[in-house]
Amino acid sequence: MTLLIACISSLKSIRFSFHQVKSGPFFPLEVSANPNNQQLRFPQGFPKAYPDTPIAGDKVKLECIAFGYPVSTYNWTRKNNRLPALATISSNGRVLVLNRIKVEDEGEYVCTATNEKVSITGSVILNIQAR
């Protein structure tokens, strides 16, 4: 018996083949990609900063999410400047973490999402309040 399940959120098809085996619950699993590429896009409001109005000394997370298929990779840059020295990347490149931010870290941060078909960019402007 073969069961086909379409996972809309990940835009992939998963095919499960079940075979009865008396010695245990083993079955082969075949995962195949949807042959239809989906346009790469950012959801409304992304990239986004958490918190959206940070104060100097805070930790800020800039998050980038892109939907589409094939799955994308992410890269963060800062427009007209380098990333702060204490910046780190997490969540497979989706999140830029700015530790102990300073007023000088204000600016436009750009996320580029890339897959084998296309690259898209989105940005978030970070305004930092002094203590």
Describe the 3D structure.
With 131 residues, this protein is an all-beta fold. It folds into 2 domains: 35 residues, no CATH class; 88 residues, Sandwich (Immunoglobulin-like), CATH 2.60.40. Helices cover 0% and strands 47% of the residues. It contains no helices and 12 strands. A 4-stranded antiparallel sheet has the order 5-6-10-9, with no helix packed on it. The N and C termini lie far apart (65 Å).
CATH topology of the largest domain: Immunoglobulin-like
Q: Per the principal axes of the C-alpha atoms, what is the gross shape?
A: elongated
H/E series: EEEEEEEEEEEE
**The CATH class of the largest domain:** Mainly Beta
Strand order of the largest sheet: 5-6-10-9
| SS field, number of helical segments | 0
Label the structural class: mainly beta
CA-CA gap between termini: 65 Å
Rg calc: 20 Å
Please identify the oligomeric state: single chain
Helix content: under 10%
Strand composition percent: over 45%
| Main sheet record | 4 strands, antiparallel
Superfamily (CATH H level) name of the largest domain: Immunoglobulins
Name given to the CATH architecture of the largest domain: Sandwich
Determine the mean pLDDT. Answer: 82
Question: In the residues, how many domains can be counted?
Answer: 2
Number of strands: 12
Low-confidence stretches: 1-22
